Amino acid sequence: MKLTILSDLLRDHLQLVAKVIGGKGLAIMEFALVEVKGEKMSLTATDGETRICSHVDLSSKEGEDMSFCVRVRQLVEPLREIPNQMIQFELNTEDYELHGKYNNGFFSFPVIKGEDFPEVQSLGDEGLKVKMPIANFYEGLDNTVYATTVDDVRPIMTGVHVDIRPEHITFVATNGFLLSYYRHSMLELNVNEQHRYTLHKKPVQLLLQVLSKSDNGDIELEFHPNFALFKTETLELQCRLLEGKYPNYETVIPKDNDKLLEADRLQLLAATRRVAVFANKAMGLINFDFSPSELVLKATDQDFSTKAEEAVPVSFSAPEARFSFRAEHLIQLLTVMPSETISMRIGDASRAALVTPIGGEAGVEIVVAVMPLVYG
User: Fold this and answer.
1) Would 180 be classed as within a structural domain?
2) Residue 161, pLDDT score
3) Which long-range contacts (CB under 8 A, 24 or more apart) does 147-151 make?
4) Can you give the pLDDT at residue 25?
């Protein structure tokens, strides 16, 4: 079998599927499965829990369809050093050696048979299928994954929860101090009842690496009792779902926060980052002093005798208020919030403050609930 493909194209797709490789596992999991069918090549890699497959067009092909496994590093590293050009590959099926020929040279190395690659997990019966724009799917994950917990005591909260109802789809994550959800209510979901699933954090992060919010087209979400499958025109990712019941996130969203702040997102983010440098490293607390036209951020670290203070122009609906927040939480939510200005609705110290973008796409609701801490 002979085939020709653009070197940069092959390298990019190999690097894409290689993102799933890592950690301990079988030796075969250092390999990618290469399947050639017609004028297309499919590249697949897995870590045992998550499986990713990318499809790429060949420039030309001679011979029968076939499959083989290649050690990813062994092919990616030479491709990084070869200027973009057509490369011809030839597979010797007697000794299973792959030969690559480019303008000024060649390379060769052994490969193994395709049937040695782990088989794909059976998904069972027909699952729930939902289609949505890639851009909205990306935003749903990007606006929530940062709020997941790293505490294995409650594994279900280490992932991103997907709540699908006839009227909307919601992505949500929480670590107990911070809760973020992204809801889209103007999609044709074609479901008749509520369905809830929780994705592991690793495949969510992989999807954010291999997709882009500027991508055109749709992605199909397919859910089964234990697995989820995501498909675009050129990519498939299958992953195991987290088991367990996700907390009722809607009960922690306060309905009667009566004080409203509006601020420039980037100004507030920059000020928070600067003041956070001088906060106590253990807690990372920043004190917020609210007034009608100004928000004063303060931080101290008595252990090292450091302190900082900065004022940010804002609009605030009450005479004054004082709250403390963890700098890490504020930086995370302000970094991903997709708007120039944000609003923060606050009540008293026992209720979460609600941060939302001002403006944005019709039908999209983004809410971050962040718990205030004792002012000090």
Assistant:
1) yes
2) 98
3) 147/173, 147/174, 147/175, 147/178, 147/179, 147/180, 147/332, 147/333, 147/368, 148/173, 148/174, 148/175, 148/201, 149/174, 149/175, 149/176, 150/175, 151/175
4) 67
